[in-house]
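2024-03-11 09:14:02 INFO worker-7 job=invfold-0412 stage=load source=structure_tokens
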């Protein structure tokens, strides 16, 4: 009985501290572990992997993060936003539009080539706080080599509730700078 109580107490303690007990070939919490190849082989494999990273993968890695974006049309800025691009190909945006009109939207993105990403972005439209439609924005951005800025062209189409024909279209640009943690 005492032994079963001790096992239960240890299991509870591990659960509350965030530690888990599991079987694995290697435990990342343990510094020194046996390996089937020496440290030099591991370093060689890491260098090969880094060199082998395609430029397309690099642009995908560079876009991930939080950005401050300025939108313009015909050379005039009309909005600013904070956008988070996620490594899973999703993104979300908080734009400086009135809350009652809708200011949170989301979308997905994909790598186009070694310097460009493409974004498909959607959001709801509200009139005086009442749902009145949606918009779809497509955007292609060129990401700087250092990953600290991007710029691109976008096309936003606005649809009334229940309609598949846009009632308005805005063609513009986006200029962004990374917000460092």
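2024-03-11 09:14:09 INFO worker-7 stage=emit residues=181
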């Amino acid at each position: 009985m005492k032994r079963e109580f001790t096992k239960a107490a240890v299991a509870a303690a591990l659960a509350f501290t965030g530690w888990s007990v599991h079987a694995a070939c290697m435990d990342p919490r343990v510094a020194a572990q046996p390996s089937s190849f020496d440290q030099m082989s591991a370093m060689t494999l890491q260098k090969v992997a880094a060199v082998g990273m395609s430029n397309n993968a690099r642009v995908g890695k560079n876009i991930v993060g939080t950005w401050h974006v300025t939108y313009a049309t015909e050379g005039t800025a009309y909005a600013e936003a904070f956008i988070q691009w996620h490594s899973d190909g999703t993104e979300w945006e908080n734009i400086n539009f009135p809350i009652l009109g809708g200011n949170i939207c989301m979308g997905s993105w994909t790598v186009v080539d070694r310097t460009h990403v493409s974004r498909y972005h959607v959001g709801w439209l509200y009139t005086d706080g009442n749902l009145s439609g949606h918009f779809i924005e497509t955007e292609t951005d060129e990401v700087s080599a250092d990953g600290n800025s991007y710029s691109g062209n976008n096309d936003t189409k606005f649809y009334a509730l229940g309609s598949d024909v846009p009632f308005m279209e805005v063609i513009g640009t986006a200029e962004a700078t990374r917000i460092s943690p």
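2024-03-11 09:14:09 INFO worker-7 stage=report msg="Residues 57-179 form a domain with the Lipocalin fold (CATH 2.40.128.120)."
2024-03-11 09:14:10 INFO worker-7 job finished
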